[in-house]
Each structure stands twice: as structure tokens, then as C-alpha cells.
Protein 1
Amino acid sequence: MSGWRIETACPQCGAPTDLEETERLVTCPFCRVKSFLVGRDGFRYLLPSKSTRRQDLLYVPYWRFKGLFFACRQAGVEHRFADVNEIALALSSLPRTLGLRPQGLRLRFLTPQAEGRFLPPERSLGDAMTAFLSRLRKPHERPLLCTAHIGESMGLLYAPYGIDGPFLLDAVLDRPLSIRTPPELLSLPVDDLRPAAGVTFLPALCPDCGWDLEGSPQALALHCRSCQSSWIPSGERLTQVSSCCATGGDPGSFFLPFWEIGCELRGIELRTRGELARAANLPAAPRKEWEEEPFRFWVPAFKIRAENFLQLAKALTLHPLTGRLEPSLPGPRHHPVTLPVEEACESLKLILAAFLRPRRDLPERLAAVEIRPERFRLAYLPFRETAHDWIQPEAKIAVNRNILGLSANL
Ligand SMILES: [Zn+2]
Ligand SMILES: [Zn+2]
């Protein structure tokens, strides 16, 4: 599947550039200035218009959600990948979705200078997602124990419409639609529909020491080699994240990033690794020191297929490498962080469901559990390279190298 292409301009020299939608760290090919792209409440995009009367156009918002949908039942976890969009207005006469249309177009980021009138979303992203999910569900299905959506948490797409007498005009193609203009659209105020910026270009410099931040184009966590710090976006700023690396791997190890997340859990005794061993009914008796070791969730900090995501999270949560972690940055052979910690937190109940035993008690136990993430850090773990896989010997897990390579656009 292919992602969107975004047409943008360098904030320093104004040179036009095209981006893949997953690119965050962008180097201008002309002035070489590096910028890191952040969206305060997710990114906002415009579909291009062919219309010459841009100032008269009405931009209708559509929520976009892309990523993995998980649904946990007693029998197991189902998952599917989806890349969908759904209208954010309550007007039923307008197209409910833009379908695959954005894929074939060069989109732009929304800027406050954009011409036209931008309608604010009336439905929340949550409402739009519930509407989408309810269409997927079959009526006879048993209730779900828990669900999770992991991926691009929020994005808003604006589609341009023109008004041509009593009919609406598709301003992307500059063609009339056979849809009558809803009267609500005509009574909208002309002013006060100014857009907010859909993207901010931050200079890719360490906020602490001013050194160049490094990372691959898709990286959501950047590293400063000068003061050995790691940075992630928070709103429109960069904020420091505590990061560490596991020692003792092979010299040629490849490092994969994980979020180590400490939580306050209610409705279940799960404060230590010893309690985890009992909750998961692990075959070996818990070691004495496990009763002192705080329980942490381990979640991949990168996009990967659903099966691998859950498998990795479960294996590392049950067999963490906590004792080997030291504050340091990974070497150049590492995979970038491509999944934000907020998204990783969405999966915690699902991971808990994957190891709780006995299974027959799962519905009642899950229903009683409340998980509040309290602290997190970034941990890079060493994987050994083989012909087809990356292998973590202690946790006894493997990641297929092809699958990892193909997961960038999930
Ligand atoms: Zn430039
Ligand atoms: Zn620095």
C-alpha cells in the first residue's frame, strides 16, 4: 500500500519539496537546513483544488485514521489494518468518505494563509471512529473484551467544495456534483472560518546544547550525540525522553526501540515481576529478586504487523531485559522510533489480555482492570542478525527482516 505525498516548501529558503507522509525529519535539498515536522493536534492536510475562485471555496473536514485495529475476544485477538477517512460534519448529504482519493493527489499542509472557508469539525474523532467500527461489526457477534487502535492517532483532511447555484461543485476536479447544496452550508459565517496551522517546522537542533539532532527521515525520536540526549515531539515542542540501551549484545547487534511503561494498575495485583509471573501462570517458579522488581509493560516503539507487535510486547513484558539497561544512545545500526508512546499506551490492556491466565476468567478480570500509564522511557534492545531474521536470544523472539522493512507505512 502506498502512503500520501505532501507538497511543501522549506521554511528557510522557500524551495518546494515533496514528502512521504511518514517523513518527519526533512532536509532541504537546496539550503540543507534540517526541520522536524510536528502537528499540534495531529496533522491537517488539504486536497488540492483546480478551481480558480479559491477564496469562495468551502473546505469540509474529514477525520482520517490509519493503523491497526485490535479486538480482543475470549478466544483470542483479531486484528486488521485500516486506512480510512470519515466526514467530521453531521451533514448527511455530503460524501461520507473521500475513500482512496487522497492517495492519487499531492496534498498540502494546511497553513493559516490558505484561501477559502474552513469548516470546523462537528463530530469528534472518537465519534467518527465509532461510526466506522460499528459498520465493520456483524450483528450476531459476541461483545468484545477490549479494543485498541494503534497507528496514526489523528489527522484531518480538508476537501474543497464550490457552490454553483443550487448544486455543489467538486473543486478538486472543478466539476459539478449531483448533490444539492445543503442550506446549512449557505448560512455559514464568511469570517471566523480561518484555519489553524496544520504543521510546524521545528529546527532540528538540540534544545539543550544547540547541536544537530540526528535520526532517519521517519524517526519520531531524535538523538543529540553531543549531550547524549533523546527528544520526542510534545505539542509544538521537543521534549527530552529518558533513553537507554541494553548492554552485552553481539558486537554487530542491530537495535530495535521499545517503550518501557510503568503504570498504576487497579483491579489486579500487578506491582512486581513476581506478581506478573503468577498472573501469567509462568511454568518456572518466580525468583526471589522478582518480588522486588517493579512490573513494566514493554511495547514496540516501531510500526510492525499486528501479529509481531503483540508477540514482541508479550515476550518482552514477560522476559524484560531491565537489568542490562544503561543510559546511552544506540549506535548507527538501529531502527528508528516510528510509534509514539501515546499510541503504545493504547495497547496495554490488550497485552495484559495476552498473558493473563486462566483464560476462562479473562472477561471478568479484564473488565475490572484500570491501567494508568505513569512513567516511560525509551529502551533500545540488541537483536542478532541472521539471513532472514533479527533475533533476541534472551527473550527468545525473532522479527522477520522483510516484514520489518515492509511495515514503515502501517
Ligand atoms: Zn531550504
Ligand atoms: Zn544536545
Protein 2
Amino acid sequence: MNILVTGGAGFIGSNFIRYWIKNNQDDTIVNFDKLTYAGNLENLEDVSKDTRYKFIKGDITVFDQINSAIKNNSIDLVVHFAAESHVDRSIIGPADFINTNINGTFNILEVVRQNPGIRLHHISTDEVFGSLKTLEPKFNENTKYSPRSPYSASKASSDHLVRAYIDTYNIKATISNCSNNYGAYCYPEKLIPLTITRALMDQRIPVYGSGKQVRDWIHVEDHCRGIELILKEGKLGETYLLGGNGERENIWIVMEILRLLNKPKELIQFVGDRKGHDFRYAIDYSRAKNELGFEPLKPIEERLKETVEWYASNKQWWQPLKKSADVMADRYLQK
Ligand SMILES: NC(=O)c1ccc[n+]([C@@H]2O[C@H](COP(=O)([O-])OP(=O)(O)OC[C@H]3O[C@@H](n4cnc5c(N)ncnc54)[C@H](O)[C@@H]3O)[C@@H](O)[C@H]2O)c1
């Protein structure tokens, strides 16, 4: 197969390319990425010399660019990760989120509609389902959409477009909605790498509100394996939820990282809550488990320890990103 990955220079996309190259020897991969602040070719330094891998700098919001990348490389499958992905940035400036996440997905759908042999897998998030109360049942494939931030609303729109193209034009597509990812190469503005990198540098660590918000955390390698299972075993036209069995309060995550790094809890600074902050996300992934055999491989405690160790021994990767990644945290700390 010839595969085109959009957003392959970002956190999950780069992990997916590395995973796929290692586990699927006969396939080629084109990484199509605009290289925004979140895109970093150093995430893929180890695979960049592989003859099965090729990078194209391009923008999914420009139809001709994505159209020619797909056509010129005889692509069989598009795995669509490219997005603006940080909720705090979407609150400050939603325009890029609307453009990339909605218009960009629309362009990809148009290319796929015009070339019915091509399959699309669309990567989405559990944030499209909104916020759960403590004892409410977990999200599943039938949960009603209820997005509450510009980010999640733009991802919800893109999911609706993909479903509409499946029903209207019978395109070959699948969707996955996944919980919060963590692991190597995550841009250090997101909670886990932000906390690790700030703790390593003895900087104050902002925690929103009471820190009692709950997220389900999935290790990025489990996410990549889940996508592989959907691509190989999933039914066309269907949506699968992928979760990590890792529901934890944000404050638990921060305290555990401080414990692993032997840093004092006095580094924590509680700050005002994020606008429209969702209280709890939780995923019931029984469909992916029963139909595809999907299951996270290790408990969060073990994966978090591995992740902390990765950041501690890869400072040369994250230090150049630190100034830009700290912008949001510093905004909250100054309020
Ligand atoms: N990170 C998570 O916890 C999480 C959870 C569930 C779903 N997702 C989804 O997974 C996907 C990847 O997330 P991530 O955390 O790796 O994001 P990321 O921000 O790390 O990477 C996004 C990548 O997309 C590229 N990109 C942005 N706009 C583009 C454009 N117009 N054209 C081409 N490339 C563009 C960026 O350069 C970057 O390389 C997103 O669709 C996101 O919604 C993320």
C-alpha cells in the first residue's frame, strides 16, 4: 500500500509513521505536513533516511496541494491526523481551527470522493462528546455530540462531514475518536510534557481550577496499534472509540510526575480555570475490544514512568521548543 499521512510531523502522526514503517515492511509512507509550530521533522529523524518514507511540505487547506500529493504518489490510503489541536489556543484564536480542521478535512474528502479507490481514516477525539459528570456512563459510539470548545466543535464538524460523505457518496472511510494521548514527542504545551519539562527545570506548574478534572489517558503507541487494527480489521463506514483504561484526575497526573522526578509539590500553582473547561472524559472502548481485539498493553503508571524517563533523557529535543510551549502556561500563571 501507498499511504499518505497528513500531520505526520506532529506528535501522534510521527509516532504512527514510526510504528507503521517498523511493522508493515511492504508499504510506503508520504508525510504531508504544513510544519506549523506543532510540526517538527526532528520527530522523525530516525526514519527520514528510509527509502519507504517521503516528506512533502503542504497545507491541507489548499486543495491543489493535497490533491496533487495524493494523485502524484498513487495513494491507496489517507490517514488524516493534521489539525490544530490545542484547546487553549482555540480559545484565544479559533480561526485556524475552523480553517484547518473543517476546511482542510473537506478538501481531503473531496479528493477521496473524486477518486473512489482511495480509503480514508479520519482521526478524531473524545472531546467531541463534551463533558461527563462523575458517575455518568462513559462515552461510546452512540454518545450524542456536544462539543464545548472551538477545538472540539471544529473536530465534531469534521467528523460530521466524514459521516455525511460516507452516507451521501459512499466513500471508503472509517473514523476513530480517541482519549488524551501521551508519550514521546508530544509538544511540551500539553499537560503531561508541560509538567515534566517544567518540573525538570524547577519552573512553577500551573494546574487549572481544583485539578479535579478527569481525563482518560492513552499511550500513543496503544493509539497507533488501535488505528492499525481499524485499518486491517475495521468495517468501512464505521466509527471506533479508542481509550486507554487510564482515567485519572489532572492533579493525580501532576503529583505522580513530581514523585517520579523527586520534585517538591510546592512547584504546583493552582490557577483560574479554563473557559468552558470539560470536567470529565471517559471512553468505553468495548466495541474496539470485542470486534478488533484492541486493548492497551500496559497500565498508566508504567507508561507514565517511561514517558518521564524519555523526556528526562531527550532534553535536546524539547529544549528548543520550550519558549513557545511555555507561552500558554505563563499566561495562566500571570493572571
Ligand atoms: N493529542 C491528543 O491527545 C489527541 C487525542 C485525540 C485525538 N487527537 C487528534 O489527533 C490528531 C493529531 O494530534 P496531535 O496531538 O498529534 O497534534 P499536533 O498538534 O502535535 O500535530 C498536528 C500536525 O498537523 C500539522 N498541520 C496543522 N495544520 C496543518 C495544515 N493546514 N496542513 C497540513 N498539516 C497541518 C502540524 O504541522 C502538525 O505536524 C489531531 O487530529 C487531533 O485532533 C489528538
